[in-house]
What we know:
Blueprint: H1 16-21, E1 29-32, E2 36-40, E3 48-54, H2 69-85, E4 92-95, E5 111-115
Antiparallel strand pairs: 1-2, 2-3, 3-5, 4-5
Amino acid sequence: LGIDHKFLPLDAAPTIFSKVIDKSIPADIIYEDHMCLAFRDISPQAPVHFLVIPRTPIPRISAAEDADAELLGHLLVVAKNVAKQESLSDGYRVVINDGKHGAQSVYHLHVHVLGGRQMKWPPG
């Protein structure tokens, strides 16, 4: 937080999510595999609010490469599967914030999944 990541090499800016991945800080992990993990947001904005993050530290969606397509698709499939596991059968919102104007707070790509209530439109 507070670091301008556009001036750093992609691997030079560890985040709090790095510590979630290596389990050096606690998190309510609800899914994990060799490519990603999902855990409950520490400041939920809906009755169900979890994040899906890749183990590979991509700083933001706009920094993803074409070669990351399989990983990016996997994040969405995991989001869908965990939403089902969390009984979000009435629907949910999937959000990726990108950069300052996108209100990204942690510069490690993460997918928000929010559900358990009626969402409003437009967001923001």
